[in-house]
Design goal:
2 copies of one chain form a homodimer. By secondary structure, chain A is α/β, with parallel strands linked by helices. Chain A folds into 2 domains: 8-330, Rossmann fold, CATH 3.40.50; 357-572, Serine Threonine Protein Phosphatase 5, Tetratricopeptide repeat (Alpha Horseshoe), CATH 1.25.40.340. Chain A has helices at residues 11-22, 82-92, 106-121, 152-165, 169-181, 230-242, 265-281, 312-319, 357-389, 396-415, 421-436, 438-453, 463-481, 491-504, 509-526, 550-572, and strands at 27-30, 33-36, 46-53, 70-76, 98-103, 126-131, 183-191, 209-212, 223-226, 252-259, 285-286, 290-292, 301-309, 322-323, 328-329. In chain A, the strands form 3 sheets. In chain A, strands 7, 8, 9, 10, 11, 12 and 13 form a 7-stranded mixed sheet that branches. In chain A, strand 5 (98-103), helix 3 (106-121) and strand 6 form a beta-alpha-beta unit. In chain A, helix 10 packs antiparallel against helix 11 (421-436). In chain A, 63% of the residues are buried. The interface between A and B is large, with 58 and 58 residues. Chains A, B: Residues 364-564 form the DhaL domain.
């Protein structure tokens, strides 16, 4: 379990502080993560890795010459915000664009996706090279849906070496994607890990048993079986990967036998003895393997095997030198050394546009609504947390409280400068996503931004504006979250709400909203009958049938409260 | 716990196989451990580290240019044998002598001590640089009695860098000893670890508690207390070490915040944030610190802080480049590159000297006695193991079975070549020490060698020979084991046995031996009343009062059996 911390809520912040203090020669801190201590030469494509923390040395441990230009650091096992990713990318960019590379998880896809859009809007080339190596997480026909696990490491490494060598943007993207296409991982877990400040592990594997294909955050695997011997395990891992070998793989591979934290080097070497023999017997030649802890999950017990089928180009890039806090190879690459312009760029804030009086009045109402939501979430935090702990990690209540509180504060601040409702909701959405992190943070952030974009600055908002805003929010949430109705997510409440709002809007905005909120409340309760189809379901997920989805529930609560406010406004008018 | 293994008895062997397979560019295997894949230049002083395994990257993980020339690899938490240490040293030696460096434990002192004596007899300069950094293990007035823990790392590193730079033998010894004098460590443990194949942890720390100063194998510490926060722990560690600062320490230190296995990098960085601040506030400047897993104890939970007060020379050597499997710094040092004579030396066996017929007859009796002992130990293995598990790690039965079996086999082999009793007992003692490992292995090995040295080749052995042999064995055991009567070790049986044998020898050898064996049996039983005064007592040691010492018991059993054989011989004559 994770025993050493001060304030559990500040664990990641404190971790980054200590990490930077221990490695000042390699990294420096920027908002949202770290970048190299010495900037790369101008014109070099930047490779930025990232994701939730708790996986050291992934991801901040591999920032330095020959490897990543920066790492975006989320909370433990939680996607960093789009703002974080944007901030690190801006600090890492040397004028040739930014390639993000990270494992395929919903929250990361959304947040890095939003960061790419923002960078592109500002004229910076940006691309997400998403890693999908975990063969246990989806069948090969749906390889694009697979999770990213230790395959992150060879993909980051090869893409980074290409950038260091001077590849252009398209070249870096090409080798990153080629490496991902030729990389397969299969992992096992023997025991879970406990987040800082929590009493219970994130998941459990029964004593003497092994979860085959269990994800590094406890996501469901292929099967559970009796604990094997070291050589039996080696055979399971090698057979599992060779069955998935790429058609044009060839005979040369590199391999990573990775420990998750509590499975130590001595044990990994015992397993490696058999793995290396089996790979040789299968006719494969192993080039520069790694045996050790490269992508951990706190002190989880377990390990995984990763194979990357090499070609000459990938082999050269895999073997290229690197010099980072946690991973060094060969002599430090000279191409990454400092230049004089070692000052990081200032990130400009979007300019404030003063709105007409009508817009400012609407903005004030939006602030009131956000204040009311923040108060409501504080009241409901424990209950939402309890609901989430059935099938999730129990942090939904805390995430909603942090997000709505940050949104209300940001909204108040910018409204005081005289802006209209759109600017207020953009600021609120950004703050929510940045402070709450994770999947619900980015969804709420995007929903607020999209809703706000359709509110007018120069006249009072009417029912049709509310319908258009709600539909834009639903579209943004569905695009980012890739959730369908029935997946047991907040879409299950937002979609019927939007439909009812449109149907009832002829009766007046406030009345339509109240009725739509009632429909959303019922729909949220109905999610208790659904079996979750997507998302980060855990081995315990079966138990969540009978419990309403916390995301749909918190949305319905918020919509109801806003309906009450709209009614009060009408009465006052 | 340690879950991945095939045959627990072959765990270390399998681990080394996998380790060498993973790192062929850095290491190659030799009997007893590993040496660099490419030998250092001729005339370079060799630095050889070692000790029990289970501490990766200590010790085999730091073999390579700029760091160690070789590592002697014992079983998990068990000293390697003198033969192992000798073998690795011979392979590492480049004509300028060998400096062994290891932590201060009884078994390691004995085995490396015997290896030094053997190397010196062969004209190779050799020295033991013993590390004594653990301030919790003895008061500062008895600093030489302190255990070696993570201080091994800076001492090995500095000594190795000096050798790489071209220091002569005395120079390497000098900086090793100076580094040790200026190094202090203090550790804490939160939870134990489980050896491969065992069901129960080696020791336990109650949930929510912390053992302050607890050793890396569960040796007793200073106190047990409530689990602190990360910053409280940082303060405990910093205050504990600064109170022990060397008088002429100066202001520059290097620091290692070391994780024991299950306490992960994220937690260590959180602690390091406060440690680095407190050190700065104390006016110390920290040079090139290390935060991570350098000396582990399988998956034990806990960490330690090590400080080495630097001077200009130590700082330069600490910062020097190194290139090893687990630790790399700067560019790979060029001074360690290969030469053409990359063949390792053949180690010559001691020549076989044919004995007269009388000597061969005595040798045959010795073989019979060793066979009988091996059979006895097989019968008693479980009982001795149970006895040992009260205060020890329960491996005494297995160690005695392996040692006596190997001794009997080696004795038979060499006796068949026509040697006398001394040569038989030398071979038997060496085999025992090599196969059993640990403390009892080296003591039995030395006892057999010393006893054998006093048996005549050219006439039958008489009572006086037995007395002289027993006294020589006692002297060897006391010299090596540094145990006093009453310390609850095999000395408690061997000492009264020897005294009674001398007193009763006038009555004939066999009768005197039988009576002395009876005295030894009673003395072994009496150890049940003693509280252990020395040795690797565990937190559970109090419970061992009431249980006889297993080492004294197995010795008394063996002496009794030999007495029976001597009686049978007399009757047959």
């Amino acid at each position: 379990m994770t025993r050493l911390y001060d304030d559990p809520a500040a664990f990641t912040e404190d971790m980054v502080t200590g990490f930077v203090a221990a490695h000042p020669e390699h990294v420096r801190r920027v908002p949202g993560g770290v970048v190299r201590a010495k900037r790369a030469r101008k014109g070099k494509v930047a490779v930025v890795t990232g994701g939730g923390s708790g996986h050291y040395p992934a991801f901040c441990g591999v920032v330095g010459p020959g490897f990543a230009d920066g790492a975006v650091i989320g909370n433990i096992f939680t996607s960093p915000s789009a703002e974080d990713a944007y901030s690190v990318a801006r600090a890492a960019d040397r004028g040739a664009g930014v390639v993000f590379s990270f494992g395929n998880y919903a929250g990361d896809n959304m947040n890095f996706g939003l960061a790419v859009e923002r960078l592109q809007r500002e004229g910076i080339r940006a691309h997400n090279a998403v890693v999908t190596d975990d063969v246990a997480s989806a069948p090969s026909e749906e390889a694009g849906r697979r999770r990213g696990v230790v395959g992150d490491f060879p993909v980051f490494k090869v893409a980074s070496a290409a950038a260091e060598e001077g590849y252009d943007f398209d070249g870096v993207v090409r080798v990153a994607e080629r490496t991902n296409e030729r990389t397969r991982s299969l992992g096992v877990a023997f025991d879970g890990c406990t987040l800082p400040g929590q009493d219970h592990p994130l998941f459990e594997v029964p004593e003497g048993r092994m979860g085959l294909g269990l994800g590094i955050h406890g996501e469901p695997g292929v099967s559970e079986r009796e604990m094997p011997s070291a050589s039996e395990l080696a055979k399971i891992l090698v057979d599992g990967l060779l069955a998935e070998a790429p058609a044009d793989g060839g005979r040369r591979v590199t391999a990573i036998l990775n420990g998750l934290g509590a499975t130590k080097y001595e044990e990994l070497f015992v397993v490696w003895g058999t793995v290396s023999r089996l790979l040789a017997e299968a006719g494969l030649e192993v080039v520069a393997p790694e045996v050790g802890e490269l992508v951990t999950s706190l002190d989880m017990a377990g390990c995984s095997l990763t194979l990357t089928w090499l070609d000459d180009e990938l082999e050269r890039l895999w073997q290229a030198p690197a010099d980072t806090p946690a991973y060094r190879k060969g002599d430090a690459p000279s191409s990454g050394t400092a230049e004089d312009d070692d000052e990081l760029p200032e990130i400009e804030r979007e300019p404030v546009v003063i709105a007409p009086a009508e817009g400012q009045r609407t903005a004030a109402e939006v602030v009131r609504a956000l204040d009311a939501m923040a108060e409501l979430m504080r009241e409901q935090e424990d209950e939402l947390g309890r609901m989430d702990s059935v099938a999730g990690d129990g942090d939904h209540g805390r995430g909603m409280t942090r997000g709505s509180g940050a949104a209300a504060e940001a909204a108040r601040d910018i409204a005081a400068q005289g802006v209209g409702p759109a600017a207020v909701l953009v600021a609120a959405g950004d703050a929510w996503a940045a402070k709450a992190g994770g999947t619900s943070g980015v969804l709420w952030g995007a929903a607020l931004r999209s809703f706000g974009d359709l509110l007018p600055d120069d006249r009072p908002a009417v029912g049709a504006d509310l319908v258009a805003g709600a539909e834009a929010a639903l579209a943004a949430v569905r695009r980012l979250g890739r959730a369908e109705p029935g997946d047991k997510t907040l879409v299950d409440a937002l979609q019927p709400f939007t439909a009812e709002l449109r149907a009832a809007v002829g009766d007046g905005g406030a009345e339509a909203w109240r009725r739509a909120a009632q429909v959303a409340t019922k729909a949220a309760a109905d999610t208790a009958d659904l079996r979750p189809r997507t998302g980060r379901a855990r081995p315990l997920a079966e138990r969540s049938v009978g419990t309403p989805d916390p995301g749909a529930t918190s949305l319905a609560l918020a919509l109801t409260r806003i309906g009450e406010l709209l009614g009060e406004r009408e009465e006052a008018a």
